[in-house]
Write a structure and sequence with these properties.
With about 300 residues, the chain is an alpha/beta fold. The chain has helices at about 20-30, 60-65, 90-95, 110-120, 200-205, 225, 250-255, 275-285, and strands spanning about 1-5, 40-45, 50-55, 80-85, 105-110, 130-135, 140, 150-155, 180-185, 185-190, 210-215, 260-265, 285-290, 295. The termini are close together. The relative contact order is 0.16. It binds D-malate, manganese (II) ion and zinc ion (ZN). Keywords: PQQ biosynthesis, Transport.
Length: about 300
């Protein structure tokens, strides 16, 4: 299995258009070591010829442009076989609008997420005469690219921000937020870009995995208020923090995962830069994702 991190940042990207936090300021400075990072998406392939995309970010046009493996090989063509959406968040669906232009591909997602797309007529630009829209049930095997067995599974997470009405249920576990399990030969990999908490069943699923891409939105639960950028906690946004009690660093460290890569990293997150937070993640043997990161699992 070959993976390409197309976008490592959370919703908003790095820098975020309206943010003047220290990370965003640095990311706008060409002389800084901190390079801009695009919004949440991962590509997978077995043969380097046909690719599956996990989530379609608002930055997809730029991501495809800078990834030669995803360029057309002829007149009106794409190596993209399928797009799998893991929830209805803007950073994971808005890129679908860029994939119009009467191009055939398969769009996988749960019935709940497909209903979010169907309820908004703008997504009708994905002409059903070309785009094969396939609802996938939890735990059902499907094939993002030929030969790759994948399953989607429930991950704790709330409804998309734009569907919130009052205080959302932060304990939802069902079809609104999912992770993707991929099995090829004796290798097992996971993609979990949004996760509100890690119940025992999910931890057991990830135990011993060869590769896990995991939600690294915030380092501290109170990072937004501490940085003065907002009032919501990570948990209120549907993302368990990396650090602290019940944080992902401690929980995932206990699971004998061979390679753990944080993705969907918010622009406020201090792990973008050298410092104690980044060191803590690296000391656990974990990797901080970045755009263009390539992982080969063979
Ligand atoms: C999230 O991951 O919490 C969402 O992408 C937030 C958003 O839609 O901006
Ligand atoms: Mn997001
Ligand atoms: Zn910022």
């Amino acid at each position: 299995m070959r993976f390409l991190v197309l976008g490592s940042a959370a919703g908003g990207g790095l820098p975020q258009w309206n943010c003047g936090c220290s990370n965003c300021v640095a990311a706008r400075d060409p002389s800084s070591d901190l390079k801009p990072q695009t919004q949440s998406s991962l590509a997978v392939s077995l043969d380097g010829e046909s690719w599956g995309l996990f989530n379609a970010s608002p930055d997809i046009r730029q991501q495809l442009g800078q990834t030669p493996a995803l360029h057309p090989r002829g007149l009106r063509d794409t190596p993209i076989e399928s797009v799998v959406v893991t929830n209805g968040d803007i950073d994971h669906i808005a890129g679908l609008l860029t994939l119009r232009e009467k191009q055939a591909f398969t769009l996988f997602g749960t019935a709940v997420t497909q209903a979010v797309l169907e309820s908004n007529p703008v997504f009708r630009v994905l002409d059903r005469a070309h785009v094969d829209v396939r609802p996938v049930s939890l735990e059902q095997v499907f094939h993002p690219v030929p030969g790759l067995d994948a399953r989607i599974f429930a991950v704790p997470g709330k409804v998309a921000l734009f569907l919130e009405e009052g205080e959302p249920d932060l304990d939802l576990e069902g079809e609104q937020t999912v992770g993707i399990e991929m099995i090829c030969g004796d290798k097992r990999a996971y993609y979990v870009p949004g996760c509100a908490k890690l119940p025992r069943s999910l931890a057991e699923r990830l135990r011993g995995a060869d590769l896990v891409f995991f939600d690294g939105t915030v380092f501290r639960d109170d990072e937004m208020s501490q940085s003065g950028t907002g009032s919501k906690t990570g948990r209120r946004m549907g993302h368990m923090p990396i650090s602290g009690d019940g944080g992902s660093l401690e929980a995932l460290s206990a699971l004998d995962i061979k390679q753990l890569i944080y993705i969907h990293i918010n622009n406020t997150n201090p792990i973008w830069r050298l410092g104690p937070e980044r060191s803590a993640v690296e000391a656990a043997g974990f990797t901080i994702g970045h755009d263009g990161l390539e992982i080969y699992l063979g």
